[in-house]
Amino acid sequence: xxxxxxxxxxxxxxxxxxxxxxxxxxxxxxxxxxxxxxxxxxxxxxxxxxxxxxxxxxxxxxxxxxxxxxxxxxxxxxxxxxxxxxxxxxxxxxxxxxxxxxxxxxxxxxxxxxxxxxxxxxxxxxxxxxxxxxxxxxxxxxxxxxxxxxxxxxxxxxxxxxxxxxxxxxxxxxxxxxxxxxxxxxxxxxxxxxxxxxxxxxxxxxxxxxxxxxxxxxxxxxxxxxxxxxxxxxxxxxxxxxxxxxxxxxxxxxxxxxxxxxxxxxxxxxxxxxxxxxxxxxxxxxxxxxxxx
Length: 293
Known about the structure:
Largest sheet: 12 strands, antiparallel
Order of helices and strands: HEEHEEEEHEEHEEEE
CATH superfamily: Acyl-CoA thioesterase, double hotdog domain
Strand content: 35-45%
CATH architecture: Beta Barrel
Helix content: 10-25%
């Protein structure tokens, strides 16, 4: 029997067909005051996938326009911009309460062979030697009342995350600067069907975790610091090689720059044998307020 949390994620990424090029998806509360950006990404990619045959997505580029309402469904309108001999382009607008909350462009390709090279995966401990992030959260509750912590820290997720570095929310000295890098193993909490589109939709969903938060590390902050406003502005994802998201993948994160009240982060995703399967980039608002008195 499939894990019910994972089954719910599959349902979330399975859209209702309203009309030609028009779909509806539901929303979930993960403990924030908005729709999780990865949810809208995964659903928008699913909408585009529903209009393409015999081709696989190789890249997507999205802009988050407004925060979504997790109590309401989302309408996805697909524009079939181009169907070429090798490449297909789709544009998707996610609409809620009559206004767009996300624009996404995705490109699909007929599979073909060509020249290959890739970066080398960093040498890090395997996931079996690391604790699940959920265990850190349980220990945190022994020292800080749950009412004083963000709700999303305790949301039960459909993914296992095992961080090579100590999760930032567990560090005793949050004012101490850290290198703007992180390494996190992840996979779904259970096996999935052999559906390549589903695995890619789920990677789009999970790729929004931890990414722009990497840009807070050199500044002694976390994504739940009281005086920090942080929100994703855009998201790009390039699918390089086949993968399974129900098998361990390593997310290698770095932030090359923060400037203009924005933080920039990049990610590389490797499978267990060191194959680079995807590359990610994201920029987000990273605005510091005066501490409340």
